[in-house]
Amino acid sequence: MNAISSIVATALVLVMTIVGGVLLYTYAMGYLNTLNTGRIIVHDAYYLKTAGRICINVENIGVGEVEIKSVEIVDVNGSIVVNTTVNTILQPGESRIIQVNWTQTTLPKYIVVVYDKGSTDPVKIRILS
Question: Is the overall model pTM greater than 0.85, yes or no?
Fold first, then answer.
């Protein structure tokens, strides 16, 4: 009877080791995949009133490339007035100024940059003459 219980105990330890290894592998792969993504931040956004243009300075601070899909512009009334398609790719560490024409009668207030991995938090637009 002792031989059967030691075999069962060995099998249980082996199964627990395999399950633990699979769990550790799954966790590590998920963590490493998040490190390989890009992330966009907005350094500055300003509206050139005389030119009728909004300039947005964005940078990819992640370690993977990102594709900027669009820019959403919210006016002072809180409505998304403009949703402009951009479709531009930023490499890690690359920054770029995106320009969007503004022909609305209300002033722009916030912008949100939408990219393939998510979107930025709303950023207040500075009004310049």
Answer: no
